[in-house]
Design brief:
This protein is an alpha/beta fold. It has one domain. Helix content is 28%, strand content 27%. The chain has two helices and eight strands; from the N terminus they run βαβββββββα. The strands form three sheets. The chain has a three-stranded mixed beta sheet. Strands 6-7-8 form a three-stranded antiparallel beta sheet. The protein has a two-stranded parallel ribbon with strand order 1-2. The longest helix has 17 residues. The N and C termini lie far apart (31 Å). 1% of the residues are buried.
């Protein structure tokens, strides 16, 4: 089994996010779930989004902190609040 389309792990703290990632890793090991590590990144949202942040790991793999991520054709960006790139959203809506 592969875990390719898990979208969000929300946490109010970096330590809480790492705890969630640890639980996912253990669950994956126990249930023969293979993670596609190349698809997993971290995105910061909140007042301190621009500050240096601890490294997050899924098992022994370090996850990259990014300032934007594209999911299902929609671009989400870091900032004080979650930002959605409107240009890409309008393009998607035109084709629906």
């Amino acid at each position: 089994m592969y875990a390719n389309e898990l979208l969000l792990f929300l946490s109010a703290s970096v330590s809480g996010l790492q705890s969630t990632l640890d639980i996912c890793h253990r669950c994956g090991l126990n249930n023969s779930i293979v993670f596609n590590y190349a698809k997993y990144v971290c995105l910061k949202i909140g007042l301190n989004w621009h500050r240096q942040t601890s490294q997050m790991c899924l098992g022994t793999r370090k996850l990259e902190w990014v300032t934007g991520v594209k999911y299902l054709g929609i671009v989400f960006n870091s900032g004080h609040a979650l930002k959605v790139n409107q240009l890409h959203t309008e393009e998607i809506l035109c084709f629906l």
